[in-house]
Amino acid sequence: MVSFLLIISFLLHIIALAAIFQLSKQIRETKQTNSDEIINLFETYLQEIRAENNKLEEELSGLAAKEETKPTRTEQSSQQYENVPQKYEYAPPAVSVEDKAEASLDARILQLHNQGLPSSEIAKKLNCGKTEAELIIKLYGKS
Fold first, then answer.
1. Counting beta carbons within 10 angstroms of the beta carbon of residue 117, is it exposed (0 to 12), middle (13 to 18) or buried (19 or more)?
2. CA distance 8 to 15
3. Per the record, which residues fall in region Disordered (predicted)?
4. Using CA atoms, how far apart are residues 120 and 113, in angstroms rounded to an integer?
5. Among candidates 109, 94, 117, which has minimal Cα distance to 141?
6. Which of the listed residues 11, 66, 119, 121 has the most CB atoms within 10 Å of its CB?
7. pTM of the model
8. What is the per-residue pLDDT across 20-53, written as a single tens digit (0 to 9) for each?
């Protein structure tokens, strides 16, 4: 009975190894055909690009030959105005920038407090709350 199981096991192993070998062989073949197809595809694209480049070079050389025979407008205009002296030069206008420094609310409150005004008058002049003015005075008065 044990020998029968060993024979079946060996047969199954041989079949499995043969199947694995065949599958690996098929995978190699498909990879090779895929790479060949990709190489052929790239070669055809490369040939098309070369043909387009050659056509573009021919068109550009044809345009360059036409342009060489005609004088350009810039050459004509520069020849016309060679003897005209240039009198005017453009100078941009001078820009004057003034920096303005504005004191913060805290600084203005402390400035008015140092002048001797009470917090209620400071609040009216600066259009802020009386408690806000008192709080700022207390905070900065300690330091």
1. middle
2. 11
3. 60-85
4. 11
5. 109
6. 119
7. 0.32
8. 999 999 998 888 888 888 888 888 888 999 999 9
